[in-house]
Specification:
This protein is an alpha+beta fold. It folds into two domains: about 180 residues, 2-Layer Sandwich (D-amino Acid Aminotransferase, Chain A, domain 1); about 120 residues, OB fold (Dihydrolipoamide Acetyltransferase, E2P) (Beta Barrel), CATH 2.40.50.140. Strands 11, 12, 13, 14, 15, 16 and 19 form a seven-stranded antiparallel β-sheet that branches. Strands 3, 4, 5, 6, 7 and 8 form a six-stranded mixed β-sheet that branches. It has a four-stranded mixed β-sheet with strand order 1-10-9-2, with helices on one face. The longest helix is centred in the C-terminal third of the chain and has 11 residues. The chain is globular and about 65 Å long. The two termini are about 20 Å apart.
Length: about 325
Amino acid sequence: MATKKKSRQDRKPTPERAKPGFMEPMAALLVRKLPEGDEWLYEVKFDGYRGLLIKDGESVEIRSRRNKNLTQAYPEIAQAALRTNAARAVIDGEVVALDAQGRPSFQALQHRGSHPNHRIVFYAFDLLHLDGVDLREEPLDERKARLPKLLERSGLLLSQALPGTPSAIASAARSLGLEGVVAKRRDSIYEPGQRSGAWQKLKLELSQEFVVGGYRPGFNAVDALLVGHYAAGQLRFAGKVKAGLVAHVRRELYRKLQPLRLERCPFADLPNSGSDRWGGGVTADEMHEMQWVRPAMVVQIRFVEWTAEGRLRHAAFVGLRPDKEATEVCRE
């Protein structure tokens, strides 16, 4: 866990000529219980797309965690970033769709046209570069302290630290229907691309990304998705997902999956007996009913629990995850 603090004398600002640029965002470690102590701060785990705002003069880009350009998709956020009080900056945060009560909705973010009452916003929770100075070696508390002035009157929102004990915070977040809570060490440096444990996330409902390896066809639509995750370089089957696939989503998924069609099953552990209690398997007799696809599409799935057989119980489709790489999806 890299949370050491450097003295101010040891910290060397980046020369003023340095330009802000993309870096892979720091990641949070999944935990079953939030850490406690004054050395931690707590924030809402937003249900959206992680992104970096990169401002360089009159140029602004929104980059996904895998460095995809999202700027054209969210012009209102790009315009707000231009109004920030700095010539150059790299801001870490999340693109979120908010309902009328201010609650994040990943499904609304996926289908904005079907949710006209939702507002697209950007919550900023870290600052990595400011006017030529690399801030990644600064403690988190000091980086966050610069955000209010930077964001003032821009239209970008600040992710505020949550008051109270970890148990009270988790209880309140659960009652509001939020996805989870993130705990961060106040003295932690920013570690691009790392999941060191200096940041930890508690999910209040089980949800993660899965790779689509096939589907059961309907009439010009998907009847059920066959999803899995990678383990030891192999795609392992996790279950069939039918809940959450409303009519227009079934048709959209069918259209997107046609170019990915395969003759052979990409799952290393199918067929199987299909005999687990929740019917999550695919028997040898059922294999011919399925259409296999190249494992490239990543989807977000909500579920109740993992069964003893390694299947998803009561799984439901939430949305597509174009910001995720299929080969990096593993069981959390």
